[in-house]
Structure formats: structure tokens, C-alpha cells
Design a protein that fits this description.
single chain; three-stranded antiparallel beta sheet
Length: 542
């Protein structure tokens, strides 16, 4: 009798403890959203101006990691998108920049470029893209293997659609400004699906040409000057002030749309078309849609993070997200949706604005610095071709090892000389040699972050970090990102769904922790290169 009861009890406990995530608990759809250049402080500064159904759905009713950071540099678009759903950093996934110097070919390589494929929906090089340069796998791949999920990735930028969606999605689609169409490549499929063809046939981008972009709220709701120092111009305009008129480029293309709220609107509508066309969230498995909104980045580069334009872009994106979330609720039910939202990086204030605030902002002429370095190398070691390229690739310098061997000069000696030269210029915060990075001798927290961003196969011989608020950005206006400083690394991370406890959490949290936290919520394994750890404090069933 005792044995029979024990066996029965064991069977009950086994069902309780050992069964996988039940279908009723599974989300029908996971939506992974990345907003290009969304600084953490935007969600705090503009919180009271948001509506109720957009960002506030996530910040006030979801799980808000308020101390989330990138723990590597360079903090730029391609590495951010590759890290988002891989749980790893450039040291592992290999995407060390939007482009980098390829030592094998001796040429610069774009992160997604793949000459072995052709465009689908376009005959231009804009379609010759794939994730082949990415090393490893992503959450998208694991979800597909574990649950047989359907995965779709979309963005204005090719790299924004390609890297988060993994190696074998049902599709990845990006916007081609020259034609105004969403396109893909033969890496994914040989023809556009009917729903993409139908969306392109609507000619939605044409409807935005000629429209005015004015402030959503009254002017007094936007602090500071509309024409602040360091702000740039939209094409065809004479002042960086509202209202802005969206014009076609000289070639009749749609580049100017993506530097306005209409770029995000276009992508939000395409997201709904993807859900409808692919019937995402309608099967027994949890599907995945990755969405990367790019337009905040384009506007942020031009106007800076304290501009009226960036504030208005974020306020309008809040309303656009509210429309998307309302659609998800109507189509699938928010109770059946899990969401994660973050950014690929932040952005620095324009150097002029930083200088005006007493922060020491400065623009550098990188070519002048490189020419000065070469002159000093020739003076110290004799005339020679010391660099493979006369430029920095996201802070990386590549030495000409073949020329150094012929001159009988040690590469490490050159690297140390470059380090001392860089620190003597007054422009650079730190410099690390390849030997220091590979042997783990890069000092300090920023040294560790450079190690996380350094890939042994693709990295340079010296990595240089500019001081805060000093940047190499062409022209006399605009700004950029890429540093290990807070304005570039502190980003919002938000979760929403039944697997997460709502609230604000100041826990230490890094970008690589997103995937293991999501994977834990869905009771599945991590991608092979995952470096992060799950945040058990926010999980309903850790």
C-alpha cells in the first residue's frame, strides 16, 4: 500500500516538477524590440509626456531594469544588434563594428555584406546581405530549435533586421531608400512573400514626401533652444528648427523619411503586416518578431540628445508603440505576448553643447592625428609603411606586420610607441595593445570592456579610447557614440509578460543578461556563446 501511494505521489510530484513549460503558460508571440540610440534617460526625462499605452506599458506595468548597461565598446549599431539576442559580446560573436579591416583580404568589410548572395526585391547591392559574419547563434535560433518557432526580423537598417533574427529565420527584411521598398536577400529566400509585395505596392513612403514634421506638443513643453549649438540640418533646410518638411532626395529616393518620425511609422505598420502575413502567434508554438526602430538614431546623430527633435521623436515613438501594442492586444491578447525592449547604444551630446555646459567637448580631425603618428614613427624607427590603413576602425589601428618584419622592427615595440603617442596627444583616455588584450592585462573597468569588445581574429593591434566628449565626427555639427562612457552605455532594458515580476529594479544588469533571462522565462537553453546570467529577482518562476 505504502509503495503504491509513494509511486502515485512520485508521479504527481514528477508532473509538478519536471514537465516543461505548459502550453497554457507559453506566450504565443515574443516581440523583441530594439530602439536604435534610445538612451536610458529619455524614458525618465520624457516619462510625464508619454501616453498610457506605449513606453508606460513597459516602464509602469512591466519590468524595468534601471541600471542596465553595455559592458563592452565600441557601442555602435552592428555590435549592439548582434549582442541583443546572442547573450554575448563582440569578443564572441565577432561583430566588432559596422565595418572593420579584414586582414585576410586587406580590405574594409561591412558587417552584413555577403557577395555570395543576391538581393530579393532589388537588383542593387543593398540586397547583398546576410548574417554569415556573425559567429554562433542567437535566442532566435534557440527558440526555433526548441519550440519550432517561426522567426521574422524587420528594420529600416539591414543590420537591424539581420543580426537579431538569427541564422535561419522565416525572413529578414530591411528598407531600401532608393526604391522605397522592403527587401531581403537570397540567403533567406528567392522571392518576396506575397504580404511584403502587397505592402510595397501600397507605396506608403510616397505619402510621407511633402509632409511637415512639427512638434507633437506645445513649444513650451520642450526645454532649451530649438536651435541649439552643434545641431545639424535636414537636407534642403537652412535652419535646424521646427517645422521640418520631408523632401525627396535629388534622385527621387526616400532617404529623408528615415530621418523623421515617419521612418518609425513605416516600420510599425510593416510590423503589423508581418504579423498578419506570417500569422505570427497563431500556432501552438511561441513565435518571435524582432523589430529594430532606426529613426531615433538618424535624428540623434544630426541634432543631439538634448534637441527638440529627439524629444519629439521619442514622444511620437511612444504613440507609435501604443498603436502596435493595442494591435497585439486585439490580435493575440497581451496576456499571450512576451516583450523585451532595449537599445543598441546611447549617444553623446554634440561637442559644442558639451563645451557650452563646461564639459570640454571637442571635435578631432582623425586624419591629422594619424599623419602626426606616422611622422613620429618614421622619425623613431626610420621610413616605413607601418599601418595597413591610415585610419582608425572604431578605435582599432592595424599594423603592417609584413613591412615590420622586413624592417626587423618588433610589432609590440610599435604598439607600445603608439600607446605613448596617443596618451601624449591629450585626446585619448586610454590605449591598449593586442598583447595586453589577449593576455588579460588591460587595466581597469574600461580595459575589461575593451576586452569584451575585442575579437582575436578581427581586432587591431592597438585600440584607442577618446576622452569623454571628444569625438571624430565630420563637419561642424552632429554627434556620435561608441565610447564606454555612461552616455553611450546606459540603456533601458524592459520586459513584459507573465514570466516577469513588474517593478523597477536597480540590479546590476548587462546586455548579455537579456537572453538568459528570456530563456529562463521560456524554460529553454541559451545560445552557445552566451556570456550572461539570468536575473532571478524578476522571474515569476526562477
Amino acid at each position: 500500500m505504502f509503495r503504491r501511494i509513494s509511486a502515485a505521489l512520485f508521479a504527481v510530484l514528477a508532473c509538478t516538477w519536471l514537465t516543461p513549460l505548459q502550453a497554457a503558460e507559453r506566450p504565443k508571440l515574443v516581440v523583441a524590440i530594439l530602439v536604435d540610440q534610445l538612451r536610458y534617460d529619455y524614458l525618465e526625462r520624457f516619462h510625464d509626456q508619454f501616453g498610457e499605452g506605449g513606453f508606460k506599458l513597459l516602464t509602469d506595468r512591466g519590468t524595468f531594469m534601471t541600471f542596465a548597461r553595455y559592458d563592452y565598446c565600441p557601442t555602435i549599431t552592428a555590435p549592439g544588434h548582434a549582442s541583443f539576442l546572442s547573450g554575448s559580446t563582440p569578443a564572441v560573436h565577432g561583430i566588432i563594428g559596422n565595418d572593420w579591416f579584414d586582414k585576410a583580404s586587406g580590405q574594409s568589410i561591412y558587417c552584413c555584406k555577403d557577395a555570395s548572395v543576391k538581393g530579393v526585391g532589388t537588383d542593387t547591392p543593398a540586397g547583398q546581405m546576410s548574417p554569415r559574419n556573425f559567429i554562433g547563434a542567437t535566442f532566435a535560433d534557440q527558440l526555433r530549435l526548441h519550440y519550432r518557432a517561426k522567426v521574422v526580423g524587420i528594420s529600416i537598417k539591414d543590420r537591424g533586421a539581420i543580426f537579431p533574427s538569427g541564422k535561419k529565420p522565416a525572413g529578414a527584411y530591411w528598407f531600401e531608400p532608393a526604391s522605397g521598398n522592403f527587401v531581403t536577400s537570397t540567403y533567406y529566400r528567392t522571392e518576396l512573400p506575397e504580404w511584403v509585395t502587397q505592402f510595397n505596392a501600397r507605396k506608403r513612403p510616397q505619402e510621407f514626401i511633402g509632409q511637415k514634421w512639427d512638434r507633437l506638443l506645445k513649444p513650451e513643453a520642450y526645454p532649451g533652444a530649438d536651435e541649439a549649438v552643434g545641431e545639424g540640418l535636414l537636407p534642403g533646410e537652412k535652419t535646424p528648427t521646427f517645422p521640418h518638411t520631408i523632401t525627396a532626395t535629388a534622385k527621387g529616393a526616400y532617404d529623408n523619411i528615415i530621418s523623421s518620425p515617419f521612418g518609425n511609422q513605416l516600420l510599425a505598420e510593416f510590423a503589423q503586416a508581418a504579423i498578419e502575413g506570417e500569422q505570427l502567434g497563431q500556432g501552438p508554438q511561441p513565435d518571435l518578431l524582432t523589430v529594430s526602430f532606426s529613426s531615433v538614431d538618424y535624428v540623434g546623430h544630426r541634432f543631439g540628445p538634448y534637441s527638440h527633435e529627439v524629444q519629439d521623436m521619442v514622444l511620437r515613438l511612444d504613440r507609435q508603440l501604443a498603436e502596435l501594442f493595442a494591435y497585439l492586444d486585439q490580435k493575440i491578447g497581451l496576456a499571450n505576448v512576451t516583450m523585451a525592449l532595449t537599445a543598441d547604444h546611447g549617444v553623446a551630446p554634440t561637442p559644442e553643447y558639451a563645451a557650452e555646459q563646461g564639459l570640454g567637448g571637442e571635435r578631432t580631425d582623425e586624419m591629422t592625428l594619424i599623419l602626426d603618428l606616422l611622422a613620429k614613427l618614421n622619425e623613431r624607427f626610420g621610413e616605413g609603411t607601418y599601418l595597413l590603413q591610415r585610419r582608425l576602425f572604431n578605435g582599432h589601428l592595424y599594423l603592417n606586420h609584413e613591412a615590420l618584419r622586413k624592417q626587423d622592427v618588433e610589432a609590440e615595440a610599435i604598439a607600445k610607441f603608439v600607446r605613448e603617442w596617443a596618451l601624449a596627444t591629450g585626446k585619448f583616455h586610454a590605449a591598449y595593445t593586442r598583447d595586453e588584450l589577449l593576455s588579460g592585462r588591460a587595466a581597469g573597468p574600461f580595459g575589461r570592456w575593451v576586452v569584451n569588445g575585442y575579437n582575436a581574429e578581427r581586432g587591431g593591434d592597438v585600440v584607442l579610447l577618446y576622452k569623454p566628449f571628444i569625438m571624430n565626427w565630420p563637419g561642424k555639427s552632429g554627434t556620435t557614440h561608441g565610447s564606454p562612457f555612461t552616455y553611450d552605455t546606459h540603456v533601458p532594458v524592459l520586459f513584459y509578460g507573465s514570466g516577469f515580476k513588474p517593478g523597477r529594479y536597480p540590479d546590476e544588469f548587462y546586455i548579455a543578461d537579456i537572453v538568459p533571462t528570456l530563456s529562463s522565462a521560456l524554460h529553454m537553453d541559451n545560445p552557445p556563446g552566451c556570456m550572461g546570467k539570468p536575473c532571478g529577482a524578476i522571474l515569476t518562476a526562477p
